[in-house]
């Protein structure tokens, strides 16, 4: 029996046709576990899934039956439930469309516990993007080099914690700051300790559900909270800003 020897170009064409045949259209729901650049690691009911984003991937947030808002990749965060459709090869989908519900995005934001950088992006989306409205705000001030909450400020924190549930679908934003003296890296660590101390105290008051407290953020020195006036001196710079926020679409007071 004789076998014909195929030319390299024919072999290449055959490989492309074979690879294309392996791809199948799919639409599935999953939850994001990790985001790295244009690759999303997710999990479906049946197992792990990798989602690859391309420049033509259409990403949108839905609210109700007809409302749709175009979003970018920064909206795709761990914990978000989403629907993807595209071409499936093995356990990898090249996404054509990604859709997620507004309420699921808010839930993912509220449950987020990641790095300072990740939380900073979320904070910007939540507050600077006006997704949320500030309902109550207070500041806790600290002595030089300290992360210990004074008695006066503990009382203020109890008061704002007790009031928080009255706003319905609330979240608690906690931003820690330091004055500009000393080493910048040390000041950032100190601002983180202050933010965590306030977060822990609020959780321990018994008034606030832990899942409604956003991960405390270390803002370091020389920065301000969105919409906040710049500190007038070092005493005012050593602070933690606590805000009770609610979705701008919320109708309750």
Automatic annotation (TrEMBL):
Residues 129-248 form the OmpA-like domain. The keyword rRNA processing does not apply. It is found in: Cell outer membrane. This is OmpA-like domain-containing protein. SUPFAM superfamilies: OmpA-like. InterPro entries: Bact_OuterMem_StrucFunc, OMP_bac, OmpA-like, OmpA-like_sf. Residues 1-23 form the signal peptide. The keyword Endoplasmic reticulum does not apply. Keywords: Cell outer membrane, Membrane, Signal. Its main location: membrane. It comes from the Bacteria. Pfam families: OmpA.
């Amino acid at each position: 029996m004789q076998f014909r020897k195929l030319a390299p170009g024919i072999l290449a064409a055959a490989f492309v046709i074979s690879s294309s045949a392996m791809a199948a259209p799919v639409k599935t729901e999953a939850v994001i576990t990790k985001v790295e650049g244009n690759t999303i690691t997710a999990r479906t009911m049946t197992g792990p899934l990798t989602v690859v984003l391309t420049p033509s991937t259409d990403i949108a947030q839905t609210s109700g039956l007809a409302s749709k808002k175009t979003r970018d990749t920064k909206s795709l965060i761990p914990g978000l439930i989403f629907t993807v459709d595209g071409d499936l090869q093995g356990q990898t989908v090249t996404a054509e469309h990604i859709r997620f519900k507004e309420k699921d995005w808010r839930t993912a934001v509220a449950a987020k516990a990641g790095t300072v950088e990740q939380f900073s992006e979320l904070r910007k989306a939540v507050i600077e993007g006006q997704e949320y409205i500030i309902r109550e705000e207070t500041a806790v001030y600290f002595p030089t080099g300290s992360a210990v909450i004074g008695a006066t400020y503990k009382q203020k924190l109890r008061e704002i914690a007790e009031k928080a549930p009255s706003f319905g679908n609330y979240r608690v934003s906690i931003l820690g700051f330091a004055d500009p003296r000393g080493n910048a890296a040390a000041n950032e660590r100190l601002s983180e300790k202050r933010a965590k101390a306030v977060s822990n105290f609020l959780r321990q008051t018994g008034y606030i559900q832990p899942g409604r407290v956003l991960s405390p953020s270390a803002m370091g020195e020389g920065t301000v909270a969105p919409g906040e006036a710049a500190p007038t001196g070092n005493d005012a710079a050593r602070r933690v800003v606590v805000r009770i926020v609610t979705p701008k679409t919320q109708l309750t007071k």
